[in-house]
Design a protein that fits this description.
The chain is of the alpha+beta class. The chain has one domain: Beta Barrel (Porin), CATH 2.40.160. The protein is 18% helix and 34% strand. It is built from 6 helices and 11 strands. Strands 1-3-4-5-2-8-11-10-9-7-6 form an 11-stranded antiparallel beta sheet. A hairpin with a 2-residue loop joins strand 4 and strand 5. Helix 2 packs antiparallel against helix 5. The longest helix is centred in the first third of the chain and has 13 residues. The chain is globular and about 50 Å long. The two termini are 34 Å apart.
C-alpha cells in the first residue's frame, strides 16, 4: 500500500484551495468554483468544503483583514465528481470588521452554509488557557501510514497517503480498534507535509480543513467505538471556529479535543489548538450525527 510516486499532498491542498473566479461571473454574490479531493466513498470531505468556503469569503475582503470566526452548517452530502460553486454575500464592511456569508452549491442546492467574520489586527486584552503538559513530541509518534501499514483497504490507503495533513495521535488511535479506557478526550499533532504560501488567511482556512478530521473521535473513544465499527453512520452537522493568534499550518500544531455530551444520536466535541511554543491559536466546536446499529451492544 503506497501512494502514487508523483503525488504531493501539500501541492494538492494548495490546488484545492486555489478557487477559480468562474470567469468573473457575478450575480448578487461573488462566485467561485472549486474541485474536490477523491474519497473512497465519493463523498466530499466536510473539512474540504469548509476550507474552500473560507477561501472564497477571504477573496472578497482586503488581505489585511484576517478571519477570526466562522459558524457553518453542513446541509447535504457533497459529490466528489461534481464541481462546487461558492456564492459569497458581502454582509457588512465596517471600520475594523467584515462579515461574509458563503453558500457552497452542487446541482443548484446548498451543501454548506457559513458566516465568517474578518478583522483588522488590533491590540487589547490577552490571556489564554495553558497548553497541556507532558505531551510527547510529534517526531516520537508513529505516522498514520505506519499505524495502518497492515490494513489493505481503500480507506486505510486514503488516510495514510492522500490526506494533506501529517496526523500523529498522542492518545491511542481509534482507526480500527476501540480505546478500552473510554475517555472522552483525544489529542493529535498535525501539520501539512510541505511548506505553504505566506498567506495568513490561507493558513487559517487550511487549519479549518484539518480540524474536521478527528473532532468526533472523543465521542467514539468515550463509547468504545472505532472508525471501523460495522454499520456506523457518522456525519458532521455544524462547525464553529475561532482563530485567536497568527499561526502556520506547516508547523506542528497540537489539537486537544474533548466531548462534553452525546445524546439524541448526536455528539458534541470541542477542540483547542496550540503551536509548539504553547500559544493557543484556535478553538473549535462541532456537533456530529452518530447512528449505530444494535445500539445497546456498544454500551
Amino acid at each position: 500500500m503506497a501512494p502514487a510516486d508523483d503525488f504531493d499532498p501539500t501541492a494538492a491542498l494548495i490546488e484545492l484551495l486555489d478557487l477559480s473566479n468562474a470567469g468573473g461571473a457575478k450575480t448578487d454574490e461573488d462566485i467561485f468554483v472549486g474541485g474536490s479531493q477523491q474519497e473512497p466513498r465519493k463523498r466530499v470531505f466536510g473539512g474540504q468544503v469548509l476550507g474552500q468556503s473560507l477561501v472564497a469569503a477571504a477573496r472578497t475582503v482586503p488581505p489585511e483583514r484576517l478571519m477570526h470566526s466562522m459558524h457553518g452548517y453542513f446541509l447535504r452530502p457533497g459529490d466528489t465528481e461534481v464541481p462546487i460553486t461558492f456564492g459569497v454575500e458581502r454582509l457588512r464592511d465596517g471600520r475594523s470588521f467584515s462579515a461574509r456569508r458563503t453558500h457552497a452549491y452542487q446541482n443548484g442546492l446548498p451543501i454548506l452554509s457559513l458566516i465568517a467574520s474578518f478583522q483588522l489586527p488590533d491590540e487589547g486584552l490577552d490571556h489564554q488557557e495553558p497548553m497541556p503538559e507532558g505531551i510527547p513530541d510529534p517526531e516520537t509518534l508513529p505516522t498514520t501510514a505506519q499505524l495502518l501499514s497492515g490494513f489493505d483497504h481503500p480507506v486505510a490507503k486514503a488516510w495514510s497517503y492522500y490526506r494533506p495533513m501529517d496526523i500523529r495521535h498522542v492518545t491511542q488511535p481509534v482507526y480500527f480498534q476501540a480505546d478500552p479506557e473510554r475517555t472522552a478526550r483525544n489529542a493529535v499533532w498535525m501539520k501539512t507535509f510541505g511548506p505553504m504560501p505566506d498567506d495568513q488567511n490561507l493558513h487559517r482556512a487550511a487549519l479549518a480543513y484539518a480540524t474536521d478530521y478527528t473532532i468526533l473521535e472523543p465521542v467514539l473513544r468515550r463509547h468504545g467505538i472505532s472508525w471501523a465499527s460495522r454499520g456506523m453512520s457518522v456525519a458532521s452537522l455544524d462547525h464553529a471556529m475561532w482563530w485567536h493568534r497568527p499561526l502556520r499550518v506547516d508547523d506542528w500544531l497540537l489539537y486537544v479535543q474533548e466531548s462534553p455530551s452525546a445524546s439524541g444520536a448526536r455528539g458534541l466535541s470541542s477542540g483547542r489548538i496550540f503551536n509548539r511554543s504553547g500559544e493557543l491559536v484556535a478553538t473549535v466546536a462541532q456537533e456530529g450525527m452518530l447512528r449505530l446499529p444494535d445500539y445497546p451492544a456498544f454500551q
